[in-house]
Amino acid sequence: MAETNIKNTGAATPITSGGTLLWGFPFLHVLTVAIVYFVGSTLPALPAVFAQIESGAAGDPELSSLTVALTVMVGMALGLLMSWFWLKREGVVGEAWNLSTPPVSWGRTIGWAAAATLVIFLIFGLGGAAVDALGLGAPDPGFVLDLVTESPAMFAVWIIGVAILAAGAGEELLYRGFLMDRLSRVAGLRDKIWLVIIIQAVLFGLPHAYQGWGGVVVTGTVGLFFGWLRVRMNGNLWACIIAHAAVDVLAMSLAYAEKLGWLSV
Fold this sequence. Notes:
Elements: H1 24-42, H2 46-55, H3 65-90, H4 93-96, H5 106-133, H6 142-148, H7 152-184, H8 193-205, H9 212-232, H10 238-259
Helix pairs in contact: 1-3, 3-7, 5-9, 5-10, 7-8, 7-9, 7-10, 8-9
């Protein structure tokens, strides 16, 4: 990975040393990944959908906690597979998905990940209050947390399969890895790293519309911070992955502890 730094002047070097792409190619790549992700995320829900149709019942099918978790995991797995296909064709998998070990140093990486975890919780706390005050509504992850805390078995599935693998590793490889690589290769964006960070943050926030516009804004802000962190770590993704997984694991664990009566909020 080429050396990447945001300088004091505000200028930045590109996060990739690869060739420039015309606008149409990154758009095609991102679109196909989004389609494959969407199709993959619907596959685990199809049995429930068909059962609903066969029964003739009105409304949306009721999905189990396991089914919802599988929609996230399968969708992410297939989305990453499609992303790998495009990156592999250009020979830039290692550059876009920079998981070099050790990164610069594990101590520095863990330190930044710990600080990032704290910053993200502050963004959710202060940002949630701000968007609520603006009338956008605070992010409400209650639907997901109810599924996570359904049983000890489901808690384990969500922690390992969703928080650590699909969200922690998967979303960072997809957004801060694949998407930032595609954007940074577009003619006109190569030397505009902040614009790349902003665009990927917007695209990261939009899928969280199920939490309302407040959720989109707050999650987009988190994506903005993660984009900066990737650049700050010279393109290496480990700090982003560790922090992202830590935030989700802690949030799910706190929700489960509260349900068990171990924690009073």
